[in-house]
Specification:
CATH class: Alpha Beta
Distance between the termini: 56 Å
Membrane topology: Peripheral membrane protein
CATH superfamily: Phox-like domain
Main location: cytoplasm
Structural class: alpha+beta
Largest sheet: 3 strands, antiparallel
InterPro entries: PX_dom (IPR001683), PX_dom_sf (IPR036871), SNX10/11 (IPR043544)
Number of helices: 7
Keywords: Cytoplasm, Endosome, Lipid-binding, Membrane, Protein transport, Transport
Radius of gyration: 17 Å
Family: Belongs to the sorting nexin family.
């Protein structure tokens, strides 16, 4: 009997399209589109697209570190206050750093078992909502929240088509 061919599990994660929100105001910030495409059983949705800001990545890393025990969690790009160069350059460097961070995280079995990571990548829940969901205090389970987001059109990349 021939051994069944097991396809290689592949997860592609991209951090793209940085956008300044609330531009010109004191509480402006940049968020990034996180696009994920996978055939891994670890993920509920095979494709997802969410927007997250740096502060949320910082929270995610802290949570992963807490749960991972001795497993080292990848580093985030620094919060450089003394940045020389243009803002665009800074944002691009940070985008690359965030992408490298996620690429390493999704390859780590221990980190992948943390449902906070899944909600971060595959739902648009806020940080307090993710916490509530993980602790079973949300209105949905982790899987339901992800599927709900995947079914809603915002889970898909639609911007291109919607332009007249």
């Amino acid at each position: 009997a021939q051994a069944a061919f097991v396809p290689q599990e592949l997860t592609t994660v991209r951090v793209q399209d940085p956008r300044v929100q609330n531009e010109g105001s004191w509480n402006s910030y940049v968020d990034y589109k996180i696009f994920l495409h996978t055939n891994s059983k670890a993920f509920t949705a095979k494709t997802s697209c969410v927007r997250r800001r740096y502060r949320e990545f910082v929270w995610l890393r802290r949570q992963l570190q807490k749960n991972a025990g001795l497993v080292p969690v990848p580093e985030l790009p620094g919060k450089s206050t003394f940045f020389v160069g243009s803002t665009d350059e800074f944002i691009e460097k940070r985008r690359q750093g965030l992408q490298q961070f996620l690429e390493k995280v999704v390859q780590n079995v221990v980190l992948l078992s943390d449902s906070r990571l899944h909600l971060f990548l595959q739902s648009q829940l806020s940080i307090p909502e993710i916490e509530a969901c993980v602790q079973g205090q949300g209105s949905q389970t982790v899987t339901e929240a992800i599927l709900h987001y995947a079914m809603s059109n915002c889970g898909w990349v639609q911007e291109e088509e919607s332009r007249p």
